Amino acid sequence: MENIVIRAQVAKQLRKIVDLESDERSYISLLETQTSSVQCYSQHAAFQRSHNIQDERSSLYSVRVRIFNYASTLLNLLKVLQNFDPELTKEYRALMVDNMKLRHNQLLREAASGYYNNSNGTGGDTAVSMEHVQKNLRLATRIREAFELPDDD
Predict the structure, then answer these.
(1) Which residues have C-beta within 8 Å of that of residue 55, sequence separation ≥ 6?
(2) Helix H or strand E encompassing 129
(3) Which terminus of the chain has fewer CB atoms gathered within 10 Å of its CB, N or C?
(4) What is the span of the domain harbouring residue 37?
(5) What is the number of domains present in the chain?
(6) Cα separation of 67 and 73, whole Å?
(7) Largest CA distance in the chain
(8) Residues near 147 by beta carbon (within 8 Å), at least 6 away in sequence
(9) Is residue 153 domain-resident?
(10) pLDDT tens digits, residue range 77-132?
(11) Is 110 helix (H, G, I), strand (E, B) or coil?
């Protein structure tokens, strides 16, 4: 009976992650649209839009944190499920680690390229942009530690 409950919890966490990944893709698409449209506006309008972009980046970051939290919960559930179904646990864990490794590398790439540091060409607020870079680096570190990813990736 406990096995069934744990499996249901695992499925629930996976659904949450999939839903949030869809949200993440929507935010990225919105950011790309806003970033390109900023370049078409006057300086005043571009300034206003750049603040909207910062808000969207904050929302994207919060979605990424929620994905990390659900994935961490799932990792803990898989440790319990290990006692009942080692093969299934191994498959789920491998998928989860691969997924989080991709996220970790994406965060590092964005930070390294200065994606949030005035990449939209509007000359926005550098301090706010650097805050996003630092948040991404901290989240990448949390992912690496929680999912035991190697430092050199």
Answers:
(1) none
(2) helix 126-146
(3) N
(4) 2-146
(5) 1
(6) 10
(7) 63
(8) 71, 75, 96, 97, 100, 101, 104
(9) no
(10) 888 777 777 887 888 888 888 888 888 888 888 777 665 444 555 444 444 467 77
(11) helix
